[in-house]
Amino acid sequence: MPGMQPPNGAPETPDGVQIDLISAGRMSNLRTMEKIRTILDSVHDGNIVILEDGLSPDEESKLIEVTMSEISPDGFTGIEIETYPKPSNDGGLFNRLMGKGSDNDNKLTVIGPANRIETLHKDENLISALVTRR
Amino acid sequence: MGLLTELRSSISRVTSKLFAPDQGPKRIGIYGPPNAGKTTLANRIARDWTGDAIGPESHVPHETRRARRKENVEIERNGKSVTIDIVDTPGVTTKVDYKEFLEHDIEKEDAVRRSREATEGVAEAMHWLREDVDGVIYVLDSAADPFTQVNTMLIGIIESKDLPVLIFANKTDLEESSVQQIANAFPQHETVPLSALEGDNMDEVYDKIAEYFG
Ligand SMILES: Nc1nc2c(ncn2[C@@H]2O[C@H](COP(=O)(O)OP(=O)(O)OP(=O)(O)O)[C@@H](O)[C@H]2O)c(=O)[nH]1
Ligand SMILES: [Mg+2]
């Protein structure tokens, strides 16, 4: 599968890349800072986070701010963040994984550690590739 | 004017400033990705109307690492004058790696310091955007791809605050420049082409600033 290997220099993990799917339902119970912590804790662990529901503009603004405060030399270098159109509503694997949680936007938000997601983020088929792997 | 009247009028000027903050100049934040030409633009505006500059410009990204302010910039348009405070902000990004500075012949110690300042500066700029600006000039390099996640997020944040915003398609002097591509990326906003470096189209720039932020 192209693009699934960690970029050169990134630490090898047995699974290559771990994906953390966060459903709309799980996020809707959290406050802004709890959401940001959930995302960044997972990203700090080297995971790629897929949010079924995007963040609000205010949450995005705070996510950038908190991300900045956690960057350190030779450690965390920040995040890559991209949005993708949701896979169509055809009862595919993604929909089975997520259930029928959300309909308020048709975008998925993908967030990952900047030093690992770089090779992935330009691939428009990223979502299906990642979800299939799980 | 007698001494007393002069004193009284200057006191009332001071107190009206103290007690009516809404009447002060609007604070216009200059935002955009690193290297778009924000400081070059801020310096040009400041030089044109106040005579001095705001801060250093450089091809090294994250040259601006602290928001810098120039207060009471009085711009004259069609016999009217508009006074604004200009805030030049660090280029917004979601990642900073000090190793990128090493490519610009900067020593490691300096690179680490610059990246720490850059992260603090970006955090501060986000904070300003949420609380302390009254309008935004969003500067883009018209020779670069505008369809980035950072641009989309920033414009979304600005829109959610209902702030007046102008998109500046900078660097029109470059051959690869495409103002149309910038306008297509953000069709809901007005795009103004310019070259901050060459000073091209500054008349329209000031017309629009007066129209949007006056
Ligand atoms: N050709 C061309 N170059 C420009 C123009 N405006 C700025 N530049 C150049 O672009 C580079 C970055 O300019 P700055 O004004 O420092 O950019 P900035 O947006 O303030 O960058 P940061 O502070 O790092 O976020 C410098 O080398 C400028 O000379 C322009 O209109 N045309
Ligand atoms: Mg600058």
From TrEMBL, chain A:
Pfam families: OapB. It comes from the Archaea. InterPro entries: OapB-like (IPR012017). This is DUF2073 domain-containing protein. It comes from Halomarina rubra.
Automatic annotation (TrEMBL), chain B:
It comes from the Archaea. Signal peptide: none annotated. Residues 27-171 form the G domain. PANTHER family: TRNA MODIFICATION GTPASE GTPBP3, TRNA MODIFICATION GTPASE GTPBP3, MITOCHONDRIAL. This is Era-like GTP-binding protein. NCBIfam families: small_GTP. CDD domains: Era_like (cd00880). InterPro entries: GTP-bd, P-loop_NTPase, Small_GTP-bd. The lineage of its organism: Archaea, Methanobacteriati, Methanobacteriota, Stenosarchaea group, Halobacteria. It comes from Halomarina rubra.
